[in-house]
Amino acid sequence: MAIATVNPTTGLTEKEFEPDTSEAVQIRVAEAAEAAGQLRGTRYEQRAAWMIAAAGILTEEAGSLAELITIEMGKPIAQSVAEVLKSAKAMRYYAEHAEAFLADAPLEDPAAVGASRAWTRYEPLGTVLAVMPWNYPLWQVIRFAAPALMAGNSGLLKHASNVPQSAMFLDTLFERGGFPKGSFRTLLIGGAEVAGVLADPRVKAVTLTGSEPAGRSVASIAGDHVKKAVLELGGSDPFIVMPSADIHEAAATAVRARINNNGQSCIAGKRFIVHADVYEAFATEFAKRMADLVVGDPLDPATEVGPLATRSGRDELAELVDDARDRGAQILAGGTIPDRPGFFYAPTVVAGLTDDMRLVQEEAFGPVASLYRANSREEALRIANQTSFGLSSAVWTRDAEEEAWFLANLEAGAVFINGMTVSYQELPFGGIKRSGFGRELAAVGIREFCNLKTVWKA
């Protein structure tokens, strides 16, 4: 895949980049390794000052950076602005909390282990490689980079090939804030070159957000070299609606959950599982709301759904819907490719799904909602848990016992009750099953790339 900005609204190539040579990659890895040594010796106060300064740059340049994000991957401009500001907020969060998250923890009864003192401490690993996707060009990177750098690590970024300008912005951001040269470096390389970088002994760990095949490949390489890995591999999140729920609020939230980021979010509600008692009311309102969405130029503030980021992504989504339609599914809204330039797909609701349809097992990465009817909570749970993914989930109910039952039985890394899944820097984020392993964000996110050292003193 060429390293290029292809505007998904027009389908036209706006800017192309030459991949880094092997010599350039070696220089950047060396810079990152040297910076890791420097960062290890700095104090939290100093790193926090640099991080806050870098966050200030994001805030000051939010308008131009948001426009760049929209041009590169097509999300509505208001959502791009929100992504920039959210990233700056996360940077400030880790600047303020890193020291407390990584503070030494004394053993309350050291005599039990024959010591006068015993404690644990967190220390940085060194240089961490991040392999990141295009759907949140800034946020996906910052939620790794902010905790990693605040812990005293340096970072290397292999970003998606279709967001090179976002990647290059990140290459200089932290140095502009005051971090030592090389603290964070972008590598303009293809996927085939990742193995060589990860194998380099100067690289101590890896984090990847992306497809399951990419995750398998990176995890295998990390395993061969006995390096720490964190993987977030997407999901097909259930959004369960029970009879006690507020149906109007649930339907309105379901639309936002499905079309946020033009439907290209790993934690978006994708499978809407509705109890039979309220299915017709929910389906009618949900399909109407989806059909009424404004599809258009994402730089226009009135647009609610922009294009998909790539032509291949749009075509793969259309194939999933066409397969379901051919096998007897009902299209309650959308189901078409608009007659216009760019990589657009109409907001779509598909019902009457059966297990032989690809849409049942594969992730629909775009504004396509799968709608299921469940005759009981047990059936709703079976549908929710039947995929190989287990990232997040949402349950709509005002029955306390029912809420507790779903909470105990849903196979997911998170459960959101009477709301839609959203990533917050304060909440741990990650999945189970084939959605990956490890966690990002909150205290656990900064600890993932640290050595937990145990200390015993006579």
Question: Which terms would index this structure?
Answer:
42% helix, Ald_DH_C, Ald_DH_N, NADP, Aldehyde Dehydrogenase, Chain A, domain 1, 7-stranded mixed beta sheet, Aldehyde Dehydrogenase, Chain A, domain 2, oxidoreductase, alpha/beta, 15 helices, NADP-dependent succinic semialdehyde dehydrogenase, 458 residues, 20% strand, 6-stranded mixed beta sheet
Describe what this molecule looks like in 3D.
The structure is a single chain. With 458 residues, the chain is an alpha/beta fold. The chain folds into two domains: 253 residues, Aldehyde Dehydrogenase, Chain A, domain 1, CATH 3.40.605.10; 188 residues, Aldehyde Dehydrogenase, Chain A, domain 2. The chain is 42% helix and 20% strand. A seven-stranded mixed sheet has the order 12-13-14-11-10-16-17, sandwiched between helices. Strands 7-6-5-8-9-19 form a six-stranded mixed sheet, with helices on both faces. The protein has a three-stranded antiparallel sheet with strand order 3-4-20, with no helix packed on it. The protein is globular. The relative contact order is 0.14.
